[in-house]
Amino acid sequence: MVKPIHYALGAIPVIVALLISVPLLTKNEIPISAANSFDTIEIEYIKHQLKKISYGVTERVEAQKTEILYIKNDGNLKYSVTELGILQPDIRSKLDEKKLNKIKALIKETGFISIPSESFPILENVTEYQKSSMKVTLNGITNLIHWPEQNATAQFVPPIITMVESEFDFIINEISE
């Protein structure tokens, strides 16, 4: 028969493990310490608003609006918009070092660079949808990913992709206002 002291001794490692792991698991931000000054990164984020246009027997997908955000390693960024075939003037800005380090840490710590470049087929009945692409070069390693919005595909878009996408959409909203 097991004595109560054995239960108490067995519970100590479990309690210590919980005290260590709970704060790490509940923290909703990536630590900036994951990025270091030697990391080099270049990011090209493209967002298309697409529409299927039917010509009777044939149909084609046409971009109604295309947004391109290009971020260089030094924090310089360029934002371009093409709407209905008309190119708007570029917006140039610079990210502060804290924001740039946050992006580096997000890409590096979450394993975004190693996500396989898989195809997400578009549902047949969807006529208008958003499709995004991101090309990330981190320390000489490049990864290119394409994905549609979740309601345009039957496949599951991983949360890391949508998390990175929302971070770049936030940057676009900040500089385009």
Which helices and strands occur, and which strands form pairs?
Layout: H1 4-26, E1 41-55, E2 58-71, E3 76-83, E4 86-87, E5 91-94, H2 97-109, E6 128-138, E7 141-148, H3 159-176
Antiparallel strand pairs: 1-2, 1-6, 2-3, 3-4, 3-5, 6-7
Low-confidence stretches: none
Terminal residue distance: 70 Å
- Any guess at the CATH architecture? 2-Layer Sandwich
Helical amount:
25-40%
Number of strands: 7
Radius of gyration: 22 Å
H/E series: HEEEEEHEEH
Overall description:
- The structure is a single chain.
- With 177 residues, this protein is of the alpha+beta class.
- The chain has a single domain, classed as Mago nashi protein (2-Layer Sandwich).
- It is 31% helix and 35% strand.
- The chain is built from three helices and seven strands; from the N terminus they run αβββββαββα.
- Strands 1, 2, 3, 4, 5, 6 and 7 form a seven-stranded antiparallel β-sheet that branches.
- β2 and β3 (76-83) form a beta hairpin.
- The termini are far apart.
- The model has no long low-confidence stretch (mean pLDDT 82).
Name the descriptors:
177 residues; alpha+beta; Mago nashi protein; 3 helices; 31% helix; extended
Can I get a quick summary?
This protein has helices at residues 4-26, 97-109, 159-176; strands at residues 41-55, 58-71, 76-83, 86-87, 91-94, 128-138, 141-148. The chain is an alpha+beta fold. Strands 1, 2, 3, 4, 5, 6 and 7 form a seven-stranded antiparallel β-sheet that branches.
